[in-house]
Amino acid sequence: MQVFTPLEVADKAGNKYLGVLVAAKFARFVNEFPRDRSIDNEKKLTTRALEELTAGELRYRLVMRRRREP
């Protein structure tokens, strides 16, 4: 199992919390696609997402939340 340090994630995402949120969102996105079930020992989706984030292969953009008008 590969271990990702908070510094590795923060280097690519700005901070560790944002990095984890981006990786989790990407893992949920990838989970929606059909996978080949015949492959054994496939990596977990969160591990793949963190690998891609720390390698700089994952691109994202922040969308600011709209405020509600009272």
Q: Keyphrases for this structure?
A:
70 residues; mainly alpha; 3 helices; 50% helix
Rounded to an integer in angstroms, the radius of gyration calculated over CA atoms is: 15 Å
Tell me roughly what share of residues is in helical segments. Answer: 40-55%
What is the general shape? flat
Q: Order of helices and strands, N to C? A: HHH
Q: How many helical elements?
A: 3
**Largest sheet geometry:** none
DSSP strand tally: 0
**DSSP strand content:** under 5%
Poorly predicted ranges (pLDDT <50, ≥5 residues)? Answer: none
Mean pLDDT: 86
By secondary-structure content and strand pairing, the structural class works out as mainly alpha
* Cα-to-Cα separation, first versus last residue: 49 Å
* Domain tally: 1
